[in-house]
Specification:
mainly alpha; about 160 residues; 8 helices; about 0% strand; single chain; about 70% helix
Amino acid sequence: MRRKDFGSIFSVTARAQVVALLNQEAVSLRISAEKPPMEDPQATSSVPPPTSAASGLADNVAGALAYVTVIPAIVFLVMDEYNKRPFVRFNAFQCLCLAATWIVLSFVCGIIPILGWFVLLPIVALTMLVTVIMCIVKAYSGVKFKVPLIGNYAEKFAQQ
């Protein structure tokens, strides 16, 4: 059997089309390489500056950890080092308010037979889970996120 060489497989017009396409790509690459680089955006970060290791956790990390369970929130409120930081204090109080809301809503859903047990309770649980995850992400990014209704009470408690 005789092997066909590369030139006999493609017609002359097909080779010309491939060459033209490659030239167009080379021209577009040269044009994009000649463009000046974009300027960096002048946005400032809302994340509080990290503190040194001697002074404990950074505010954004402590604020995010406060939402993991109620235990870190209580610990942050008891320790003087974190109790004096308004960002950590607000997030700890908001976590405690979310936990209290979860307990009340679970009790109410538990009282309502069938509908509360199998429909309302899963909806409330999923809503609370999404809210807590959202609070963790916002706290870690350094944003003071107030949950509607609950956030106002947490802010009042944090300012006392």
